[in-house]
Amino acid sequence: xxxxxxxxxxxxxxxxxxxxxxxxxxxxxxxxxxxxxxxxxxxxxxxxxxxxxxxxxxxxxxxxxxxxxxxxxxxxxxxxxxxxxxxxxxxxxxxxxxxxxxxxxxxxxxxxxxxxxxxxxxxxxxxxxxxxxxxxxxxxxxxxxxxxxxxxxxxxxxxxxxxxxxxxxxxxxxxxxxxxxxxxxxxxxxxxxxxxxxxxxxxxxxxxxxxxxxxxxxxxxxxxxxxxxxxxxxxxxxxxxxxxxxxxxxxxxxxxxxxxxxxxxxxxxxxxxxxxxxxxxxxxxxxxxxxxxxxxxxxxxxxxxxxxxxxxxxxxxxxxxxxxxxxxxxxxxxxxxxxxxxxxxxxxxxxxxxxxxxxxxxxxxxxxxxxxxxxxxxxxxxxxxxxxxxxxxxxxxxxxxxxxxxxxxxxxxxxxxxxxxxx
Length: 423
Fold this sequence. Notes:
Radius of gyration: 22 Å
CATH topology of the largest domain: Aminopeptidase
CATH architecture of the largest domain: 3-Layer(aba) Sandwich
Number of helices: 10
Order of helices and strands: HHHEEEEHEHEEHEHEHEEEHEEHEEE
Structural class: alpha+beta
Number of strands: 17
Distance between the termini: 32 Å
Strand content: 15-25%
CATH superfamily of the largest domain: Zn peptidases
Shape: globular
């Protein structure tokens, strides 16, 4: 199909999708009632590995069950996984579990065996102290309610369940709705999901992630990942009949669950309501949310997800290096370029490469996706921060020796560091 014809088909297709969904309306009452339920004292902030976090997951199971959608994980709405590392308050998570909770909305027609994951993390920071033995409802000042982060995202996800399941199209992708656990302790739930997916990862065409969408200010919505597949840029704009002030980001590397999918070469969109002053405080309560804005985001997201679900062509993943993470460490030599993407889905010693860019210093030296970089220029590399600091201690053009672990073997490479200005 030539480019002009393909573009014309896309425009007509998106227009049809928008026209078909005008009759559907998101409910402000439902959106805020879900947030109130998730932030109640009996769930005490939904801490990872806690009894209250498990109780909140049970409530999500009941919501999915009442929706009429089938379980995503065989006969179960749960996907239980082991936690590792430390919790928010420093408590040891070893031996504790968390849960992903999910359901499936079956597709139809020739696209039925293709999938979209619509996700939002349900966990938050739990109680203020490390004592997890308390029983009964907690007082508001003793736990992090997490209304915006991320009861708001879970509420929008269930609004999508309510609206999208009533859509009727002859051909559309199946949708996996997943509420992830363990996001606040290192994206552990989404990381486990992509390693134990109920469908082949090759069948997942896109992932849309809602995180912290309850305090949109000045009608401004942030959507990143728009360049992770070619047609996303047009889709996110066409869906905007709410006339939101969209701030678009090309990459999908912000610190939330969509990164687990991006590192597995699945196109992603991250829907984010913006920064807010109650972040990670006990004041992140349902009463602080912008309910009108939450409804607008839900209505916008419905159109967007529907248009993706009925898009007739493939959605090939594109590697984007835009804004991986906030800068760390030394202010020196910010233009020194290595050319890799970090893999945040595993907690390991070293710097694991989620990918390397064509033509980059890393690629030219022979490094590959999956390599774990453990030494650079004689310095031990234990994580992303030590890698960044070591990289910036060298000027572009410098030759450095790097050591990596690949398939259990130790390999050494000489890398000529590049200059970002010359990319």
